[in-house]
Write a structure and sequence with these properties.
The chain has 322 residues and is α/β, with parallel strands linked by helices. The chain is built from nine helices and 14 strands. The chain binds N,N,N-trimethyl-histidine. N,N,N-trimethyl-histidine (AVJ) is lined by residues 54, 62, 164-166, 168-169, 209, 216, 283, 285.
Length: 322
């Protein structure tokens, strides 16, 4: 198990994201008749900054609504999570929600953060370690859309934490497979505290993913800058535009980059041609009713113990048990 030292934190790198594997994912996506790019590539340093900005936008209700549910219902949530647990967060934990949770759960035995962005991971893990000196903090640099195993950790139970409705970025069959892997990871008596965005009026959703200031557009276009830098591609960001639409039938937001003209882009030895108005899918964000998500959770090896929502039923925080 290879490690790297930052300050007094050991970052586990055993499952470091496989850059060659991601290059293949990019090439495969661009070779498809309906082109697509892996949304995990949004989160380079610039992308993470832009997402921080998105989470503060008026139109993007998800982050503030989930945080409000945490603040209002933290006693019930903390008692569900229980004492002496190992808390495993998918994503780097720089959110206010992580701290609200760590402030209220009793004697956590350890905190594990898993993130594909090494910079974000080390920064936020160091901040958590500084804020909670007695807490055993273990950052793992990994791509959690793929398998990875955890070092043995002593704790009463293991509870996974997956906020923000990032579960929505998986197609339902992938989400079910992911939940099944989490159920295996937390084991008997283990749990999952998860944020799930609720189905609602398409006008609210379309605004949330296409804000007036164009921050989401910049976040979406930034994936091309990341691919240029990481894989030596020649994308011109000014030759694409952002598009986000709610697909009522599929129950998901679809984000695209639309080619503004006929163009050819090289990526290494490979050339890709884009027609005028051709779309590249960069993200899906599925929305669920509480019942629909319960069916998915059961398919993933969990049963739903608790669902907390805001007064306007915009968002839900759910506690699932294996
Ligand atoms: C952080 C993945 C939950 O899908 O709502 C925000 C990312 N995409 N605006 C989401 C995102 C466009 C966000 N997640």
């Amino acid at each position: 198990m290879s490690e790297s030292q930052t300050e007094n934190l050991t970052v586990l790198r055993a499952h470091a994201p496989d850059i060659e594997g991601i290059r293949r994912e990019v090439l495969d996506g661009l070779r498809k008749p309906e082109k697509s790019l892996p949304s995990k590539l949004f989160y380079d340093e610039r992308g993470s900054e832009l997402f921080e900005e998105i989470s503060e936008l008026d139109e993007y209700y998800l982050t503030r609504t989930e945080t409000a549910i945490f603040i209002d219902r933290i006693d019930e949530i903390a008692s569900r999570v229980g004492s002496g647990v190992i808390l495993i967060e998918f994503g780097s934990g720089n959110s206010q929600k992580t701290r609200i949770l760590l402030d209220h759960i009793l004697d956590p035995a350890g905190y594990v953060a898993i993130d594909i962005s090494q910079e974000k991971l080390t920064d936020s893990a160091a901040a958590i370690a500084a804020a909670y000196p007695g807490l055993n903090v273990l950052p793992i640099w990994a791509d959690y859309t793929h398998d990875f195993d955890l070092p043995a950790l002593e704790g009463s139970r293991t509870v996974a934490f997956f906020p923000g409705s990032t579960i929505g970025n998986f197609h339902p069959h992938e989400a079910e497979a992911f939940l099944r892997r989490v159920a295996e990871l937390v084991g008997e008596g283990g749990g999952l505290l998860i944020g799930v965005d609720i189905k609602k009026d398409a006008r609210i959703l379309n605004l949330a993913y296409d804000d007036a200031r164009g921050v989401t557009a910049a976040f979406n276009l930034n994936i091309l800058a990341h691919i240029n830098r990481e894989f030596g591609a020649g994308f011109r960001l000014d030759r694409f535009r952002h598009q986000a639409t709610y697909n009522e039938e599929q129950g998901r937001i679809e984000m695209y980059l639309v080619s503004l003209e006929d163009q050819t882009v090289s990526l290494g030895e490979t050339e890709f041609s884009f027609g005028r108005d051709e779309r590249v899918l960069t993200e899906v964000s599925y929305k669920y009713t509480v019942d629909e998500f319960e069916r998915l959770a059961v398919g993933g090896g969990f049963h739903v113990k608790d669902v907390w929502t805001d007064p306007n039923q915009l968002f839900s925080v759910q506690y699932l048990e294996v």
